Amino acid sequence: MKNNREIVDQIILLAKQQGLSLSELARRVGMAKSAVSSYFNKTREFPLNRLTAFASALNVSPEELLGIDLYPQNVYPLSHQTTKIPILGAIACGAPIDAVENVDEYITVHSGTLPKGNLFYLVAKGDSMYPTIPDGAYVLIREQSEVEDGEIAAVLLENDTQATLKRIKKEADIVLLLPDNSSYDPIIITKDTPVRIIGKAVQFFSNL
Which InterPro entries does the protein's record reference (predicted)? Predict the structure, then answer.
């Protein structure tokens, strides 16, 4: 079982993997952003009575945050607890690439780890989102047309023919599509170069 600091580290890791901003996490658990920040900075002790709320916000079980293994040797009950998620193709983590929308294959995952909503996987190509998202990672996208500042989104641009995965930053009348890799430049979007957000990156996994 994890200690208090290890639980916080697990929460931070899960939030990062899911592209979840501090503001969004605070909203989901019904707490002030400053309070959640103090837990992350370890200036205040994490309240275990809020464990269930944080687990729900991160789409995991309280037992997972505590490090309690309910299913030894990765054995899970199969009945009604797996979901097939389609892989819709590739998305650029670098220069935009032609959008791919055909279903290549499906990935079967444990349903308890999934957020709500219409979900699909895209395969990251390139390293502009490294180290957050590595090249070749399978990125789980929840379909939605808006994301908060700082969240990672799958974006269609150039008349819905090119797709890219970037962090969103809104400033006045422009939108910045920001890479996490400093070797890449942001993409600047104005009213003359509209984009369409197709979903929010919520999780990813990659093969060794």
Answer: Cro/C1-type_HTH, Lambda_DNA-bd_dom_sf, LexA-like, LexA/Signal_pep-like_sf, LexA_repressor, Peptidase_S24_S26A/B/C
